Amino acid sequence: MTDIVSADWVADNLDRLRVVDVRDGWEYDAMAHLPGAVSIPFDRFRKESGDSEGMLPSHSQWASLLGPAGISADSEIVAYDDHHGVFAARFLVTAALLGHDPEKLYLLDGDFSSWQLEQPTSSETPDIAETDYSVDPPEATPLVDADRVAAASDDPDAVLVDTRDESEYAAGHIPGAVLLDWRELVDDETRGLLPREEALAVLESVGIVPEKRVVLYCNTARRISHTYVVLRHLGFEDVEFYEGSLTEWEAQDRPLEPGSPDA
């Protein structure tokens, strides 16, 4: 299970971690980065067109990114961005879906802006020994298809969750979905995850509780990646991930329902 770890924990374990910076390349070069971090920008690990595989990169594309970055299948990876972790979470979920051990994947709690307030940064590009990264997707994954998503809205033991913002939800959402803007689980001041009890209260307020199967979607699987990591971190065990999200849903001419969550 991908875990969310503090800046202090990362600083104490830098010598054994592969640190991945998923900001734009110019930010990595011009604005400094975590010591030892390698640059793998977000736009390099997502496919450009939506289909049945959603936005996941191909196996060869993924291997060609991680190998030159010095990452092997046994590496412990911590990822960060400068947007409260949402882009970094997408990197980590992609890694898990393509076979990297989730127990060796970590999301920095916060982001680069919060890190640099108390921790050292570097402008040096580290010397990296390339590896031959092997992709070995697991047999069991949280991925679900559109039919499974459609059925969730009528299942009393499930909750279908739209993680986009309220205006997007109001313009059109999958019928039966509740709204949980992923940013509601983030503390604007610390730029990291809300304290545990606060986060659980936010979730419970829209019917997201550990006893139910939780099915997540957004537009292109970026925002649900953050919510997925948070839910797993909080101990939710039955969380499903609609990789195709609305990109695929709309391409299949499936129905959308307009209206605000309070309507």
UniProtKB/TrEMBL annotation:
Q: Mind listing the UniProt keywords for this protein, alphabetically?
A: Repeat
Domain (Rhodanese): residue spans on this chain: 13-124, 154-258
Q: What is the lineage of its organism?
A: Archaea, Methanobacteriati, Methanobacteriota, Stenosarchaea group, Halobacteria
KW Repeat (keyword) present: yes
Q: What name does the UniProt record give this protein?
A: Sulfurtransferase
Q: Name one GO molecular function term.
A: thiosulfate-cyanide sulfurtransferase activity
Source organism per UniProt: Haloarcula salinisoli
